[in-house]
Amino acid sequence: MQARRQGGARDERSTFPAATCRRSSPAGGYSGRTAVRARASALSPKPSSSGRAAPKPRPGRPPPNQSLRCNVEQSEVTKFLRQIGLMQYAQTLYSSGFEDMETLLEIEDSHMRDLGMLPGHQVKLRKRLEEFDADIPVVQIHPQRCLGDWEDEDDAPPVRVSASSPYGRGSAPSDRTTTSVQMSWAHLKEIGTDVVGAYFCRKIFELKPETMELFPIAVRSRYRDWATDEDEDERNLAASPALRRLFGRVVDAVGSAVAGLQDMNKMVPALTQLGMRHVGYNLKEEYFEISEKALVLTLREGLGDLFTKEVEFAWSMVYNFIIATMLAGFRTARAEVQAKQA
Ligand code: HEM
């Protein structure tokens, strides 16, 4: 693929035409990965008032240092705590062995007490964990509109989920969550998915300028609407109608999934194949993660006050499910390519 540096992404104004007022929101979103595996061994038994042990730092571990701080920063538990406003316990929980959501979901009152959490914070954490575990929207996507070919639904393997998976319980979301999440999608559709898509893609370019090289004019031409007289400026990616359309489709895919509130199993094969195709588009794995950050920034800008924690949570869940599934396909295809080259 032609790799050429394209200019212009930063020249364009990076705001929505009718941006609503902003609301501060935690940086990054909770990264709700699927298929979290049991990590019972991380809990080293220590008698406590309830007879259950609070997880302790594993023996032989170095004292908190730069890399531990880094691990804490990047852990899913920290992202979750940031979202619920309990960041002050991130370090303590992490170094006590609560390094992933599956473990955190098992936390007991005695653990929280032992770790010195204030009573009100214990209540809050418990409540948020219950919401996390059970009150997650089950989602539906409309692949035929956005993701290309779809396999026969009978062929679709079930998604493997664990208790802490976003889709684990299949329970209905609360009315409040449903409404706020659906309102967020309605609002973005009002702005226009292509406008949101353009902003989303500019954010990706800002966060990782080298990604612009993935979209030379030859690639953009594939997404051009030849029925209109729209122009593709070779050097100005930010104003590219083709990219606006392509990323508009991505926004549409994610948004309709977020608002659909139905079974998501059926989208797995198409997403896996989509991920496989992205190997041919010269993507690096890290771009998927960057795109998640870009999506959060996009939503924050586009939704303003509608960008509540619940909304962020729902979008992050769905997006993470999508990119985790795509990544599985991406890795399989990349391994095949590497095996052929060896
Ligand atoms: C949720 C995440 C994403 C979804 C759902 C998605 C979806 C799509 C779809 C539907 C296409 C049209 C071509 C096809 O169906 O194979 C496409 C093309 C493309 N995507 Fe993605 N994408 C995602 C993330 C990304 C990211 C993060 C990048 C890189 C920054 C990227 C780069 C590309 C490129 C370069 C093409 C054009 C390929 C070509 O026609 O040569 N995608 N994507």
From TrEMBL:
InterPro entries named among the record's database cross-references:
Globin, Globin-like_OT, Globin-like_sf, Globin/Proto, SAM, SAM/pointed_sf
What Gene Ontology terms describe what this protein does at the molecular function level? heme binding; metal ion binding; oxygen binding; oxygen carrier activity
* Entry keyword set: Heme, Iron, Membrane, Metal-binding, Oxygen transport, Transmembrane, Transmembrane helix, Transport
UniProt name for this protein:
Hmp protein
Tell me the segments the record calls region Disordered. Answer: 1-68, 148-177
Q: Where is the Globin domain?
A: 170-331
> Is DNA repair there in the keyword field?
no
